[in-house]
């Protein structure tokens, strides 16, 4: 029997996907044929989903979380925008996001007919609070802060953005899709306990080590989730708040299994490992003449010339660049010191050539 080659992670440096935890892999296989979109019929996976949401709530400091396991950060962000729009029902809704926000908000604005207002970030790539304040008005339904930005791993000033949002009568959403499994072990003010956050994206299939697809959306209030529900007259379950209908029981079960195995000690150990790794790697790059942004969450951004970048890609390194051209290395669970040492050797070889 022909089997597809497994994903080879040995040269993947810019991705936010990673090797799932063995327990997650196992759970994914067992629940492959279940559909959490019909929780009355598939009750065991529905129970695992409630457990996953409870744990996501613990991670994000929310004791009574309302949410579900999405197909990913994109669905979670779309649903946060949709919920805010549905709850506030203004004539001409807009959403204020920092320039650093993930492109999923562009999709959200497009499908939901909401205006997207992108405001500048500061010199350190964090949302500029004054710019957000200047952008909100009576029609703003949501302000977004990123906690672990895709390009630079930066955490926006969440309490300040929450104040801007609430003063304008809008909701505050935190996109911790990638950062959420690291932030509990840092001093950042990012969670439901640190600020009056209304909703959050936090994805088990990124640094949470679940199998794809497993994102997460959380709401502080039941009304946040209820604003998404539609009636499902002929199913055993009578309403559905998810964006997709049939969805992956594999992702849900994998999320529950990974978090069971790793929260909190496993994630803490992993955070400590990658924090040290990213700091070391940035210093090694600087020694070789690169300029690097300060490392915050475990993502290293470094200046790199086009020819060197292209040569490294030709060597098989799976790397990408920020909009402003920096090399991005995301220190995911599969990224080791051995891998980065091999990368640095190739950097030297390319420079010498
Ligand atoms: N929010 C943030 C902060 C993100 O970084 C991402 C994805 C999303 C939302 C959207 O999440 P989903 O992709 O789960 O819908 N960030 C990665 C990126 O755009 C996604 C990614 C993952 C890209 C793996 C490539 C890859 O190999 O870089």
TrEMBL record:
Pathway connected to this protein: Cofactor biosynthesis; coenzyme A biosynthesis
InterPro entries: GrpII_AminoAcid_Decarb, MfnA, PyrdxlP-dep_de-COase, PyrdxlP-dep_Trfase, PyrdxlP-dep_Trfase_major, PyrdxlP-dep_Trfase_small
Co-factor(s): pyridoxal 5'-phosphate
GO molecular function list: aspartate 1-decarboxylase activity; pyridoxal phosphate binding
Protein family per UniProt: Belongs to the group II decarboxylase family. MfnA subfamily. Belongs to the group II decarboxylase family. Sphingosine-1-phosphate lyase subfamily.
Function: Catalyzes the decarboxylation of L-aspartate to produce beta-alanine.
Stated name of the protein: Probable L-aspartate decarboxylase
Organism listed in the record: Halopelagius inordinatus
């Amino acid at each position: 029997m022909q089997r597809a080659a497994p994903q080879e992670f040995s040269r993947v440096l810019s991705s936010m996907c990673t090797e799932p935890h063995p327990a997650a892999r196992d759970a994914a296989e067992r629940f492959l044929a279940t559909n959490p979109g019909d929780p009355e019929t598939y009750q065991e996976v529905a129970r695992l989903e409630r457990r996953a949401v409870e744990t996501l709530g613990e991670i994000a400091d929310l004791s009574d979380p309302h949410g579900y396991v999405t197909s990913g950060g994109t669905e979670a962000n779309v649903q946060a925008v949709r919920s805010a729009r549905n709850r506030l029902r203004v004539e001409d809704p807009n959403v204020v996001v920092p320039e650093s926000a993930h492109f999923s908000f562009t999709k959200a604005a497009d499908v939901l007919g909401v205006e997207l207002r992108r405001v500048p970030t500061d010199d350190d790539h964090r949302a500029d609070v004054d710019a957000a304040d200047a952008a909100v008005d009576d029609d703003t339904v949501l302000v977004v802060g990123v906690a672990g930005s895709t390009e630079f791993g930066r955490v926006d000033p969440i309490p300040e953005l929450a104040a801007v949002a609430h003063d304008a009568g809008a909701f505050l959403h935190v996109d911790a899709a990638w950062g959420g499994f690291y932030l509990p072990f840092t001093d950042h003010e990012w969670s439901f306990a640190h600020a009056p956050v209304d909703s959050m994206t936090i994805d088990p299939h990124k640094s949470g080590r679940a199998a794809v697809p497993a994102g997460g959306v959380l709401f502080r209030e039941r009304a946040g989730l209820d604003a998404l529900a539609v009636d499902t007259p002929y199913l055993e379950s009578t309403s559905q708040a998810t964006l997709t209908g049939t969805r992956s029981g594999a992702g849900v079960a994998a999320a529950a299994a990974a978090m069971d195995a790793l929260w909190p000690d496993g994630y803490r150990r992993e955070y400590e490992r990658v924090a040290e790794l990213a700091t070391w790697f940035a210093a090694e790059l600087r020694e070789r003449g690169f300029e690097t942004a300060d490392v915050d969450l475990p993502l290293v951004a470094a200046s790199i010339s086009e020819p060197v970048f292209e040569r490294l890609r030709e060597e098989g390194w799976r790397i990408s660049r920020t909009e402003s051209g920096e090399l991005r290395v995301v220190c995911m669970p599969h990224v080791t010191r051995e891998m980065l040492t091999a990368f640095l050797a190739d950097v030297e070889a390319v420079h010498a050539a």
